[in-house]
Design goal:
The chain is α/β, with parallel strands linked by helices and 608 residues long. The chain has 16 helices and 19 strands.
Length: 608
Amino acid sequence: MLLAMLEKKAGLCLLIIWLITACTPTKDNLKAADSAAAEEQNPPDAAPEPEPEPEPEPEPEPEPEPEPEPEPEPEPGPNQVSLPNILFVYIDDLGWTDLWGSDFYQTPNIDAFRKKSMSFTRAYASPLGTPSRAALLSGLYADKTQIYKQGLGTYKVKEVKPRISKVPFYRMIEPRGAAWLAENIFTIAESLKTKNYQTVHVGKWNLSNSNNPMIGSPEAQGFDVNFGGNHHVEPPNDKGDSGFFATDKGLFPSFPNLGTAAPNTYLTDHISNLALDWLAKERDVKRPFFMYFSPFSVHTPMQAPAADQQYVLENKGKVKVYNKPCPIGSGSCYNVFVKCETDQKHCNLTFAAMIKNIDDNFGRLITYLETTPTDPNHANSRKLIDNTLVVFYSDNGGLKKVSSQKPLRGQKGTIYEGGIRVPLMVRWDNKIKPNTQVDMPVIHVDFFPTFNALAGIEYTRLTVREGSRINRYYPLDGLNIAPLFFSQPPSTALQQRSLFWHYPNVPSVLWNNFPTTALMQGNLKLIYRYDIGKYELYDIKADPNENRNLIQDVAYQQKAVTLSKQLQQRTAKMPDSLWPKISHQGEGAPRLTKLKPFNPSSEKPPPR
């Protein structure tokens, strides 16, 4: 009987508790219900009869609590590991042999930097600066940016009479292509901004619309600050009244946001001052920075400060120099037909002085990083150099008429090694082993995915769409080469990938080029020449000077077939606007000319 009463009372308590929880679903009531249910299943041996409790008034439903504010990220302390700063120095027209094969040019600061860096002996770029800059900033080759030269194609019939007598006269219409970097292409700067980077452009841009420089400008492509970047490929401006030197009023009228300097200030000195001023006064110590420092030097016009020329003269040793001054405001002085002594490779005084000036200003930037604390407000703050990745690179090979690229074949404007192999050094103290060398081929499109990896950025369709107004996603053409920085084994993808160039330009008397498309896999480089419809094949490791064309070598023909198929697959989706139109024998109207497959039985080596 007692057991029955207990069961009846327990049931009544459960009913009351259920009514309460139905009105007020609090955590305490849920716990009470769980406890009562447990007692029902396991009643105590001698529990006193509980007194029935009056039914409580239902409590008002609680208002939903506001979501808590996200906790702010902790500020980095003076020695806390953070995302790396990036200083990317992109020199204009500095050839591979200008830096690593000269007994005349003097670069003490760059030489010292190299001893603290990792050097890449087979670093590549495009044959010309504009496509190189587009590829670097977008991570895409010319078939996607559609930029293969400076400005639009000529789009008119060009009659070509090659200097080589065995190459027949032909007619050609250059592809139209694109004249500036489209704003629907995501850039390195936009990607890094998703990780709160400050982004600064200094110097040459050369990727905006010449009629409206704000279209495709640095500001439109993810840079917070722009010192001097617009459509210009070189100083001076269109009227030729400034060149590398400021006017008598201290102005550089061709370029935006450069302010005022002392009269006749040299342009490279001035933009270096602006870069250093930004680092000292505008840099946010709580955020990482990406500075794209791109001086116009050592591009034409060949102009250098008198003090730098005097220094070269006093330290030239036994070199007999060539000096044909380029007057201020004279336009594109190339110092053409430089004639050095037979036992000399380099002797151009003005060019040597321009390189000396670049070396001085680069040294100023590095000295600032080495001596300035990350956060001046902390006494024990690390120096900026301790967490700054510094890249020193060139946008294409050197100009032969200014500076010989021997023993490499070709020069700026050609697809041969003299036109596309460039100096590259990367320094990151305590991360990259100093004074080391890498011989694996790397190229400009690799830096976008590499910086993404170092900053922890996942490059996806979602990143591209949320990171900016971009609504078009392109898979990046480059690969992450950061493992090479840290002396790790290269990935299989890095070892097996192919580098690509599309260069269908009308031949120029300035650099004696051919309209070409090329592909390099490992040590083999395959070139297709549209002017004669022939392939060339070189083993770059065994023959870096490209003296021996292997296209007729039986041992290499199967590899040539494989590479030619790769090249066709790479270009299969290119629009007609990127293919040249050629009449091979100079007969009839030029017609669309695409790659043809390599046929060993019919292929004959093209003339050199």
